[in-house]
Amino acid sequence: MNSHLQELRVKIIRIALVALSFVLACVFAASAAAQAWPAAKPVKVIAVFPPGGSVDQVARVLAQQMSTQTGQTFIVDNRGGASGSIGTAAIAKAEPDGYTIGVVFDTHAVNPSLIPNLPFDTLKDLTPLMLVGTGGMALVANVQQPYKSFRDVVAAAKAKPGSVAYGTIGAGSIGHLTMTQLGNQLDVEFNHIPYRGGGPLMSDAVANQIPLAIGSVFLVSPHVASGRLRAIAVTSLKPDPSLPGVEPIAAQGVPGFEAYTWWGVVAPGNMPAPLVKRIYEELAKAVNTPAVREKLAAQGMEVRGAAGDELDAFVRKEMVRWAKVIKDNKIKSGD
Questions:
Q1: Burial of 211 per CB tally in 10 Å (0-12, 13-18, 19+)
Q2: Contact, 152 vs 232, CB < 8 A?
Q3: CA dihedral over 150, 152, 156, 159, signed as positive or negative
Q4: How confident is the model at residue 53 (pLDDT cuts 50, 70, 90)?
Q5: pLDDT digits 0-9 by tens, 113-125
Q6: 123 has which bridge partners?
Q7: d(CA 73, CA 115)
Q8: What is the C-alpha separation between 302 and 280, in angstroms, rounded?
Q9: Contact at 8 Å (CB) between 333 and 146?
Q10: What is the pLDDT of residue 148?
C-alpha cells in the first residue's frame, strides 16, 4: 500500500514538473518575443477613420516616430466606416503578436450602445495599450446669432422648447450625446441637426445655415479665430487655453459638468503581458518626444500618455455614461 502511494506521489510530482516546465517555457517565449518586437516584420497601425481626420493624424504622428525609434516600418492602414467599428473589428480579429495595433476615437465607447450586433466585444476582444489624450469640445454660434453664452442658449430653449437648433458631426457623436445629456439635466429641449462630418458642419455654421454647432476645439478654433463663429462655452471642466475668455459649461449653470473627445491605442485581445509592456514603453517614448507632443497638442489635445489600465477604466466609465443617455433618449445610429 505504501509503495502504491509512493508511486502515485512520484507521478503527481512528475506531472507538476512537466506542467511547470511548460508554463516557464511559455513565459520565457513570451518575454523573448516581447524583447524582439518589432524586429520580425512591419507593424500595421489601423486608423479607424478615413484620411484627413484627427484619428488619422494621431496614427501617422505615432507611426512616424515609432519607425524612427525602432528602425522598423510602421504602416498606417485607414479602415473607416460605421463610426470606427469596421476598423476596430479588424484589430480585434488580428493576431495578438504586436504587429497589428490601432488608434480609436471617442466613438469606441459609444458604439456598443449605438450599433446593434457589433462583431466584437469592446472589453474582451481588445487589449488597451494607451490613452493618448483627451480634448474638450466647444459650443459655437454664428456671429449673427444673438447667443453670447450657454446661459443664453438655455434661456431661449426654455422660452420656446425645440426652437434652438444645433449641429454636430453626426448622430450618436459625443457632441450629440453631450447636448442631449445637458438637455436632460436642465429639462430643456434642443433640436439636433446631424451632419456627415466636421467639414459640412463648419461650412453651414459659418454660412449661418445652422445657428449653433458643437465640435472639438481643434475643429472650431480656426473659424473662431477668423471672426466668423463665436465660442460661447467649452465642455472641459476648466477653460481651454485655445479659446481664452470662454467659460466652461460647468461655470454656466451646470456645476461639475465635463465631456471630452479622446484618442486611444488598442491591440487584439489576449496579448501577452510582456508584449503589452514592451509596446507601451515605445508608445510612451514616442508621446513624450517634444515634437510629437507639440503636434498632438496642436490638435487641441491634452496629451496624457496613460497606460492601458487607465484607458480600460476610462472606456468603461464612458460606456456606462453614454449608454444611459442613448437608452433614456432612444438614440439610434442615423438619427
A1: buried
A2: yes
A3: positive
A4: confident
A5: 999 899 999 999 9
A6: none
A7: 34
A8: 18
A9: no
A10: 97
267 and 129 Cβ atoms separated by less than 8 Å: yes
Collect all residues with Cβ–Cβ distance below 8 Å to 313 and sequence separation of at least 6: none
Q: Is the pLDDT of residue 32 over 80?
A: no
How far apart CA 120 and CA 93 sit, in angstroms, is 8
Q: What is the reported pLDDT for 28?
A: 47
Q: If DSSP codes are grouped into helix, strand and coil, which group holds residue 319? A: helix
The yes-or-no answer to whether 39-134+261-328 and 136-251 have a common fold is yes
CATH code of 39-134+261-328, in short, is 3.40.190.150
**Cell numbers found for residue 113:** 450602445
- Is the distance from CB of 328 to CB of 177 less than 8 angstroms? no
Tens-digit pLDDT profile for residues 151-209: 999 999 999 998 999 999 999 999 999 999 999 999 999 999 999 888 899 999 999 99
What superfamily in CATH does domain 136-251 come from?
Periplasmic binding protein-like II (3.40.190.10)
Residue type, 243: L
Is the separation of the CB atoms in 150 and 299 below 8 Å? no
Q: Could you tell me the residue ranges of all domains in the chain?
A: 39-134+261-328, 136-251
Q: How many CB atoms lie within 10 A of CB 288?
A: 11
Cell 488598442 belongs to 266
Can you tell me the distance from the alpha carbon of 317 to that of 301, in angstroms, rounded to the nearest whole number?
20
SS3 per-residue string spanning 273-291: HHHHHHHHHHHHHHHCCHH
140 three-state secondary structure:
strand
Q: Determine which helix (DSSP H) or strand (DSSP E) holds 234, and give its type and residue range.
A: strand 229-234
Residue 45 or 26, more confident:
45
